[in-house]
């Protein structure tokens, strides 16, 4: 077991790396356990054009590399491995990586969320090359192109309506014959001339050489296959927060996201903070994740200062 640190950061997306920058500059000597999939979802993104400060855009992996370099410059120590388990029931908190036990007075969790995927080999091959999981992030790149979106809930319909600002047409592919979205969202979709529907359909394959050219759809009733010519596919079948580590340790909501106090990153355990998509149902943007990482760092710093003051009284 190593000596207890002021702060350990679990995760290394925009929220975790921003927290690392702020805690390092506060002389808290953070240890960032960045995980094998270091950098988060932006590592799967090609062009990022909506992160402030980059007027010509920047590649997702390059942005994460720059954020990591900045955190390292101020003294953040990195461990490139996954956390196996945590113990928030006693202080200092315990974090285990393989056979190594780390202890910390405070912990910032920034493990993010993973978009649910269709599970196709072609989907992985074309991710970032016409296949996307975020309309807000990538819709701008698909101006004047026919698009498809998979899903039937509120998020899928909201993204479909958003994409009509850019696309020539948006086809909603849904495995059932009716949507799960709320009536108001359904009404918006049905009233939009740019939106078509392929009911009782699932994506069997995504065809394209370096970019999406068409989808192969399978009718869930008849089994019949058909082609749909599109130049982009948006997968909107939900996200899963990466919170398995924290079940039984922290309060989670019904969807598995970490519950934080209003206008705060504080969790149900004093001294443990959560930032980014692991606690954000709504925005899921790099800039909002970075902002909450800043919040978590400042709250951790203030909490540590208060705890030290109380201990010294």
Give the helices and strands, then pairings.
Blueprint: E1 5-10, H1 14-25, E2 31-33, E3 47-48, E4 58-59, H2 60-73, E5 77-79, E6 85-87, E7 93-97, E8 100-109, E9 113-115, H3 121-125, E10 131-132, H4 135-138, E11 146-150, H5 154-163, E12 169-173, H6 183-190, E13 195-198, E14 201-207, E15 214-219, E16 225-229, E17 232-235, E18 239-241, E19 272-274, H7 286-312
Parallel strand pairs: 1-2, 1-8, 2-5, 8-19, 10-17, 11-12, 11-17, 12-13
Antiparallel strand pairs: 3-4, 6-7, 7-8, 9-18, 14-15, 15-16
Helix pairs in contact: 1-2, 1-7, 5-6
Shape: elongated
Could you estimate the helical fraction of the residues in percent?
Answer: 25-40%
Quaternary organisation: single chain
Runs with pLDDT <50, length 5+? Answer: none
Largest sheet: 7 strands, mixed
- Total number of β-strand segments? 19
If helices are DSSP runs of H or I spanning 4 or more residues, what is the number of helices?
Answer: 7
Residues in β-strands, percent: 25-35%
Describe the structure in brief:
The protein is an alpha/beta fold and 313 residues long. It is built from 7 helices and 19 strands.
3D architecture notes:
This protein is of the alpha/beta class. It has 7 helices and 19 strands. It has helices spanning 14-25, 60-73, 121-125, 135-138, 154-163, 183-190, 286-312; strands at residues 5-10, 31-33, 47-48, 58-59, 77-79, 85-87, 93-97, 100-109, 113-115, 131-132, 146-150, 169-173, 195-198, 201-207, 214-219, 225-229, 232-235, 239-241, 272-274. The strands form 5 sheets. Strands 1, 2, 5, 6, 7, 8 and 19 form a 7-stranded mixed beta sheet that branches. It has a 5-stranded parallel beta sheet with strand order 10-17-11-12-13, covered by helices on one side. A 3-stranded antiparallel beta sheet has the order 14-15-16. Strand 6 (85-87) and strand 7 form a beta hairpin. It is elongated. The protein starts with a strand and ends with a helix. The mean pLDDT is 93.
């Amino acid at each position: 077991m190593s000596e207890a640190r002021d702060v350990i950061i679990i995760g290394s997306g925009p929220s975790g790396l921003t927290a690392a920058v702020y805690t390092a500059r506060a002389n808290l000597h953070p240890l960032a356990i960045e995980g094998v999939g270091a950098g988060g979802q932006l590592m799967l993104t090609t062009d990022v054009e909506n992160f402030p400060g980059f007027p010509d855009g920047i590649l997702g992996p390059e942005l994460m590399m720059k954020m990591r370099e900045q955190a390292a410059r101020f003294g953040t120590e990195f461990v490139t491995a996954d956390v196996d388990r945590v113990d928030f029931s006693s202080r200092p908190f315990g974090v285990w990586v393989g056979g190594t036990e780390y202890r910390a007075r405070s912990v910032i969790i920034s493990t993010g969320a993973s978009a649910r995927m269709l599970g196709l080999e072609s989907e992985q091959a074309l991710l970032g090359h016409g296949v996307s999981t975020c309309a807000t992030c990538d819709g701008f790149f698909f101006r004047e192109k026919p698009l498809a979106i998979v899903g039937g809930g509120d998020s899928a319909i909201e993204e479909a309506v958003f994409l009509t600002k850019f696309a020539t047409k948006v086809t909603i592919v849904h495995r059932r014959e009716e949507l799960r979205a709320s009536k108001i969202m359904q009404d918006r979709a049905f009233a939009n001339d740019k939106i078509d529907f392929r009911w009782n359909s699932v994506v069997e394959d995504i065809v394209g050489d370096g970019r999406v050219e068409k989808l192969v759809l399978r009718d869930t009733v008849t089994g019949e296959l058909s082609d749909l010519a599109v130049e982009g596919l948006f997968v909107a079948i939900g996200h899963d927060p990466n919170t398995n580590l924290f079940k039984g340790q922290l309060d989670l909501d019904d969807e598995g996201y970490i519950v934080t106090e209003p206008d705060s990153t504080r969790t149900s355990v004093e001294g443990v903070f959560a930032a980014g998509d692991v606690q954000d149902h709504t925005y899921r943007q790099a800039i909002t994740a970075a902002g909450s990482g800043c919040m978590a760092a400042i709250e951790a710093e203030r909490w540590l200062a208060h705890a030290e003051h109380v201990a010294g009284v």
